[in-house]
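Weekly modeling sync, notes
Attendees: S.R. (lead), two postdocs, one rotation student

Agenda item 3: backlog of single-chain predictions. S.R. asked that every request posted to the team notebook include the full sequence so nobody has to chase files. The rotation student volunteered to paste the first one in as an example of the format we agreed on. Action items at the bottom.

Example entry:
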Amino acid sequence: MDEAGGGAAPAPDEAAGPSFLCDAMLGGLSRWLRGAGYDATFEHGIDDGELVRLAQRTGRVLLSSDAGVFERRPLRTAAVRGLYVPRGLRPMEQAGFVLRELGLRVRDPRCMACGGALAAAPKDAVRGAVPPLVAERHDEFWRCERCGKVLWKGSHWEGIVAGVAAAAAGAAGAPVTPVTPEGAEATPGAAAPSEPPPPLPDGRDPSP
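Predicted structure, as returned to the notebook:
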């Protein structure tokens, strides 16, 4: 989805199932997990000790590709829940691994910027928050309940949908056919991207 505006600090949404804290090596994974419907944050430049303490304070499941992190006492005693993510996997494959290992299903996507839940927003209510051309060309909008961003299905949405479907296929161990939001079957043999395209920070619709 594309987006516009917003600004609030991320916080776990306990009613939405497990939330995740990704280490510095797993920033791409955090975005795929949001696309799969789970609240995930990414911490860059944080040392291992603070990363573990943050997971303990917030109750998030710690995801890391650093085996040394799991030798720390909070993880050894299960005071902090964690999952080691093997190195050498693409972000999409990492997401499939996490879904499979934790027995999770793909759900409705969350905000790709912060992981917050999305709520349908009437077009008239967001008209002033999106560019006029976007308001003219789109009828469905969503607002992030956490950061306030307004989102809509932009030109790269199908790539995200196909990628999440591929992650789900990896998690289930069986092939699936990606489906676009409109319900039309995707082009056979089309390769899913290794990472979801980043949403435009200013919310402009990138389609020509």
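Discussion: group reviewed the output briefly. The chain has a mean pLDDT of 77.
Action items: rotation student to repeat for the remaining queue; S.R. to check formatting next week.
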